[in-house]
Design a protein that fits this description.
Layout: H1 7-21, H2 49-63, H3 75-84, H4 95-108, H5 111-115, H6 121-131, E1 141-142, E2 147-148, H7 167-186, E3 210-211, H8 222-252, H9 263-288, E4 298-299
Antiparallel strand pairs: 1-2, 3-4
Helix pairs in contact: 1-7, 2-3, 8-9
């Protein structure tokens, strides 16, 4: 069965082939009226649409009807399908094409209205009987040639056609069709499963970062708070002592000119050296008293 045909229609088409040609097998697609397919130059499923239409012109006189294939397409019906579906005529009458043509006939007879609840079973069965002569009507009605009763072919009285299946079988298959159509309507749409994502780590071109201790906002203890200014004072005292020692060393070694050993020059020299040592002491004190808690976590 062609995959484009929904499940309910596919079940009904299988039933139609079994009723019309006596089998649901692939061989049924090659059967012509009266089972005269062995008299053809090649199987129907190897012919194109145009080839079948051309040969059907003589089949009515030779075999009594032009009915062809699994769904027993009459020549007039096949010609209409070619026009409606805009077939090129070069398509081969293989089983899938015949299935699609059969499904189109079902839709022409009201299949979509039937499965949607817009047409009742009796009316749809009558329309099927108008398309396929082997199907019976479900209630008494006016047929093609005369008044007919339940279980008769719509074409009863033409001396050629008769119903080949009981009306109860039609009622049963149409119930199956409705069940399959309803299941199709509520079936979840299949969605593709998400594919596994493979993550590939690409080596970085940046140099590795040097790990440093993480910074902390832990408050200083009282002892740490006292030690900070003490360290700064110690640095100042040390630097001042170094400055005084330098002045004494220079004086004792006689490296200073006589004019610089007393008075204003000596005072100026002391201020300069003392100021320089004080600055050095301040920087050193600030460094020793720095708060190490807020240094960056990493350094490149």
């Amino acid at each position: 069965m062609d995959r484009t045909v929904p499940a309910g229609a596919a079940r009904l088409l299988d039933f139609i082939r079994d009723t019309e040609v006596g089998t649901e097998a692939r061989s049924g697609y090659d059967i012509i009226f009266g089972h005269n397919q062995d008299k053809l130059p090649k199987p129907v499923t190897s012919m194109t649409v145009d080839e079948v239409l051309g040969q059907q012109q003589s089949w009515s006189s030779r075999f009594g009807s032009s009915a062809t294939g699994g769904y027993q397409f009459m020549r007039a019906t096949l010609s209409q399908l070619k026009s409606e579906l805009k077939l090129r005529g070069a398509q081969v009458m293989e089983p899938n094409l015949q299935d699609r043509l059969g499904y189109h006939l079902l839709k022409r007879r009201g299949y979509e209205k039937f499965v949607s609840g817009q047409m009742d079973r009796t009316e749809f069965a009558k329309r099927l009987a108008q398309e396929w002569a082997s199907f019976p009507v479900l209630i008494a009605t006016r047929g093609q040639h005369r008044q007919i009763s339940r279980g008769q072919s719509f074409y009863a009285g033409d001396g050629l056609n008769k119903a080949l299946v009981k009306p109860e079988a039609i009622e049963g298959i149409l119930a199956e069709v409705l069940d399959l159509a309803a299941a199709d309507a509520v079936a979840p749409i299949a969605r593709p499963e998400p594919e596994d994502v493979i993550v590939v780590e690409v080596p970085s071109s940046r140099p590795a970062e040097k790990e440093t201790p993480a910074m902390t906002d832990k408050p200083l203890t009282p002892i740490e708070q006292m030690n900070k200014p003490v360290k700064g004072a110690q640095a100042g005292v040390v630097s001042g002592g170094i400055g005084a020692a330098l002045i004494l060393l220079v004086q004792s070694a006689g490296w200073l000119p006589a004019a610089w050993e007393s008075g204003a020059p000596a005072t100026a020299l002391g201020l300069v050296v003392g100021g320089a040592c004080t600055l050095i002491g301040n920087f050193l004190g600030a460094y020793l008293a720095r708060d190490k808690r807020f240094q960056s976590e990493r350094s490149v």
